[in-house]
Amino acid sequence: QAVVDFERLAEHAAVFQGHDVGFCCLGTTRAKAGADGFVRVDRDYVAQAAELARAGGCKQFVLQSSQGANAQSSFLYLRVKGEVENLVRAVGFDRCAILRPGVLLCKRQESRPMEWVTQQFLGVVARVFPTAFSVPVETVARAMVACVLQPGEEKVKVLENKAIHELGKA
Fold it and tell me: Considering the entire predicted model, what is its pTM?
């Protein structure tokens, strides 16, 4: 494990050398980082890390994005997620998987009251519609690994929430 300063990521290029696969789950919230900070973390840091990984020899990249990601969205969160997806695609990995999970179900150390309420509600909804709106983080992690272990023919593969559930159970 290496600790890097994302504000000076180019100075840590050696950390990105010699890896076949890159996994990226980096993200923050607008509430925590402000609008500019959110864009910097969720788009700029991710895109720069992908570029450094590719320059270091990385052949395959797996990105956790978000359900509804769309570079044309009027919502900042969805627009930034769509923009970073496009930037990562443009890097030119041999293979790239983009996972678009719904609400991530997990226990956090930090307090996010609205997210907690949403998770409680979606936990009930998930009993009836298990793949519609949410997904446990463990399922996302298994699906990300499965993208590497069971690669398809596509250069870029986009998995929506239901496909993440299916692949994460395999």
Answer: 0.88
| CB distance 155 to 139 below 8 Å | no
Catalytic residue among 59, 77, 157, 162: 77
Active site residue 81: yes
| Tokens encoding 89 | 């695609």
The answer to whether 45 is a known catalytic residue is no
User: What pLDDT digit, counting tens, does each position of 121-138 carry?
Assistant: 666 666 666 666 789 999
CATH domain 16-169 topology: Rossmann fold (3.40.50)
Q: How far is residue 88's CA from residue 158's CA, in Å, rounded to a whole number?
A: 12
Q: Which residues, 6 or more positions from 48, have their beta carbon under 8 angstroms from its beta carbon?
A: 9, 10
Q: Which of 32, 45, 81, 169 is catalytic?
A: 81
Tens digit of each residue's pLDDT (9 = 90 or more) over 90-124 = 999 999 999 999 988 877 666 567 666 766 666 66
Where exactly are the structural domains of the chain?
16-169
